[in-house]
């Protein structure tokens, strides 16, 4: 992507976060400002082995989650940050995968390869055909970061972003899943499975939708 397409996703998220904090903390704006003031020290305290790009994009939301968890409990903190990270993640993934330039099953696979390589993620393609693409991630740096911060449960927030983005990429043509239950690192598996199945588009006689009724 070109620098001209870079976008500050916080422009989308701050109004949503402020709204979700209403009635949960005494003053939402003060809470956000307090987290913002602690952000740089928080980022500097994180082991530099973690990718800087990931820290820059996720640290603020994780810091908010940690502070909310201390005051409101894990369940409430999770439900507040969940729609925030889903919204931010969907926007970010659409930009990274450059969906505005076109979407196809083949392009999705191409972008997955590029995305994994850009983050130096060790992955293994286990199946690739005209209608199915599967790979396994041997490591998940976000899961490792959440474990490092002692909030492993927050890993599934990004898993939900994957599910939402990939299942809406071509919603009538491609289905995404992790294959079977408990097939993620966060579940205790040895790797995370990513399974993309092309459900329409290869048929000799694809289904036809009824014509619209003329007014």
From TrEMBL:
InterPro entries the record matches: ATC_hydrolase-like (IPR026002)
A Pfam family it matches: ATC_hydrolase
Top-rank taxon: Bacteria
Name under which the protein is recorded: L-2-amino-thiazoline-4-carboxylic acid hydrolase
Organism: candidate division WOR-3 bacterium
């Amino acid at each position: 992507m070109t620098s001209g397409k870079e976008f500050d996703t916080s422009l989308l998220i701050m109004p949503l976060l402020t709204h979700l904090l209403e009635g949960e903390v005494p003053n939402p704006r003060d809470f956000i400002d307090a987290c913002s003031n602690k952000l740089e020290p928080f980022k500097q305290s994180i082991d530099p082995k973690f990718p800087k790009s990931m820290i820059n994009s996720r640290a603020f939301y994780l810091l908010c989650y940690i502070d909310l968890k201390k005051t409101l409990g894990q369940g409430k903190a999770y439900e507040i940050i969940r729609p925030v990270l889903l919204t931010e993640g969907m926007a970010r993934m659409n930009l990274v995968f450059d969906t505005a330039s076109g979407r196809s099953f083949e392009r999705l696979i191409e972008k997955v390869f590029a995305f994994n390589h850009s983050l130096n993620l060790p992955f293994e393609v286990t199946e690739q055909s005209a209608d199915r693409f599967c790979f396994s991630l041997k490591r998940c740096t976000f899961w490792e970061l959440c474990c490092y911060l002692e909030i492993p449960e927050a890993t599934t927030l990004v898993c939900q972003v994957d599910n939402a983005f990939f299942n809406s990429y071509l919603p009538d043509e491609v289905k995404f899943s992790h294959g079977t239950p408990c097939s993620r690192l966060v579940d205790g598996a040895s790797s995370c499975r990513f399974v993309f199945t092309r459900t329409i588009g290869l048929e000799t006689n694809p289904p036809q939708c009824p014509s619209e009724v003329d007014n």
